[in-house]
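On clarity, I found the account of how folds are encoded harder to follow than it need be. For illustration, here is how one protein appears when written out as sequence plus structure tokens:

:::
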Amino acid sequence: ITWLGNGIWHSLCIFFVSYFTFRLATTNDNGELTGLWDLGTIVYTCLVLVVNIKMALITRYWTGWTHFAIFGSMILWFLLLLPYCLFPEGLPHMYYVIYNLLRLGPFYFTVIMAIS
């Protein structure tokens, strides 16, 4: 039950920190506001980082496989996300989302706040 409560607490913190940080943020010079795809990308990025850091904190014995699993999954998320946002044919709403987010200061603030 404690793990379930912990998961609910982390998910609520990640969502509301992301939502209130990016509620009125703009993604480009035209003043376009962030949308659902931007918020989803931010929330899932924070989720991947928080879950892996939580696993790192509760790990008692570090082996090569542990390093590979924890740090590899964080690196793999970004390696898959970066090219995925380059092709508008699959999901046109995801086109260039992560590249716009990486230019914004609130993105980094949100990630740091969600992790801490």
